[in-house]
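Protocol step 4 of 6: record predicted structures for both targets in the notebook before any analysis. Target 1:
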Amino acid sequence: MKKFQIAASLLAAVLMAACGGSKTSLGEVEVNVPEWYANPPQTSDNAVYGTAHETAKNMQMAVEKAKHTATVDLASKYETKVQAMTKSFKEELTGDERELFETVSKTVINTSVMGVQVKEQKIMQAPDGTFGVYVLLEMPLGDANKAFLAKLKEQEALRTKIEASKAFKELEAEIEKDNAKQAM
């Protein structure tokens, strides 16, 4: 999956360079992307936005991939759970040092989105026939969505209260243990 993402990113850079990018004095290529992709609208009380860029040999597949990725981006603005683990190993062998760094992360998004619509879309084709699609999705926060967002915030506040209550009970238990030890 990681190799695919890197390949897709490189292909996107090549696509954009082929579509009129210009070289800078540092040899870097300026990539021309839609303004709404480079600076997407900010989430507000009225709407939530998600953006994406995807490529595929088939135009419809590129469009569907971009819409899916943008929907995930949009949904991640409601609720995202991230798990991460980092390991670092260092080994020294007769003067030569070897180092290994490993990182693993997992992102889980579990929420519903309603009323999502394509606000902007740009489809491009590279000389090799590959299609690149930029998409900006908008989810207006009408009454139903505002109620949904309020419910999510309420659930988060309740979860926080429960966790705080558990932590307080654990603290009380530790204090009671400590008092029992001192009474002996």
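Target 2:
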Amino acid sequence: MNKKQEKTETQVEAQLETKETEEILEEQAEELSLNEPPSQETLITELQQELAAAEQKAQDNWDKAVRTMAEMENLRKRTQKDLEDAHKYALNSFAKELLSVLDSLELGLQAATGESEEVKKFREGSELTIKQFEAVFAKFNVMTVNPVGEPFNAEQHQAVLMQEVEGATPNTVVNVFQKGYTLNGRLLRPAMVVVAKAPEKPAIKLPEDNEQA
């Protein structure tokens, strides 16, 4: 091998070594760039994002807690109202049954006419029994609806008849066929009533009708 060839081979080897050295340096530079700590701005941004996420999660948990508390309070109120209603209106069906007995007593009293001693004793006994019924009803807040002279109230009265009554204000109760009752303010039975209506206006005769007549 001549000197020229040896020189060329030496140059090639040197170039290869230089390239390998550059590649090694680039790899080391990349590793250093990957391993170097993040900048302060990057850290602040990451912390802000983490803080925002934590605040959002805390707000979501708080909203859930508030909704749960509200639902529990509503449930407590509904349960309390149901218990109160059950206590207040437990006598509803029983009171309705007693009303039919009271109605029979009052009808019997109305039918008891005459001046004999037997009739008088019957009337006295019936009146006393009715007063006892009324005292027991009052004790348990069963109140009478006897609206004679009052304006007609569709929520508590049942109109069975409407008629003209001289001197009565239209749409007022002029007679009660059957008294109504309430239990703690709730209607047990509507009062069956007669309601006054406005008198009908007489027909106005037209002049043409008079001429034809």
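Step 5 preliminary note on target 2. The longest strand covers residues 157-163. The first helix runs from residue 3 to 35.
Proceed to step 6 after PI sign-off.
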